[in-house]
Amino acid sequence: THLDETQQDYVRTAQASGKALVSLINEVLDQAKIEAGKLELEAVTFDLRAILDDVLSLFSGKSQEKGIELAVYISERVPELMVGDPGRFRQIITNLMGNSIKFTERGHIFVTVHLVDEVRGSMDVETGLSQQDSLSGFRVQIDGG
């Protein structure tokens, strides 16, 4: 069956919501692993842009309801594929975006991704209210790096 653009958008939102639910369940399981000292991070290739796009689509409806501009900027120097833990990355970005939308009453939320050598922090989440959370420590590995 051919889906129109609105239906495709609903499917994308449902998929992103399902991923967010799985992420929430994993957070509960991760807490137990952290407490037991057994949390391990993956080192696999993943598409950072695809994850950010999924998370952005997950929160776009809520941000529009509140009249908050939501945007992601990724430096052209950031490679298409990264090596790291995509599940943890999704989890952290989902939590940051969720909290940003929850606690931003007006203005905008911009997520900007740069390489560490471009700026001192590798990722900033900044709200229109001048509140700022920084996330650093994500490393980029480029072919054999």
TrEMBL record:
Transmembrane segments: none
GO molecular function, one term: protein histidine kinase activity
Keyword terms, alphabetized: Hydrolase, Phosphoprotein
Histidine kinase domain span: 1-145
EC top class named in words: transferase
EC number annotated for this UniProt entry: 2.7.13.3
Signal peptide range in chain numbering: none
SUPFAM superfamilies: ATPase domain of HSP90 chaperone/DNA topoisomerase II/histidine kinase
Catalytically driven reaction(s): ATP + protein L-histidine = ADP + protein N-phospho-L-histidine
Cellular component aspect of the GO annotation: nucleus
Key word Hydrolase present: yes
The organism's place on the tree of life at top rank: Eukaryota
Cited Gene3D superfamilies: 1.10.287.130, Histidine kinase-like ATPase, C-terminal domain
The protein's name in its UniProt record: histidine kinase
Upper lineage: Eukaryota, Viridiplantae, Streptophyta, Embryophyta, Tracheophyta
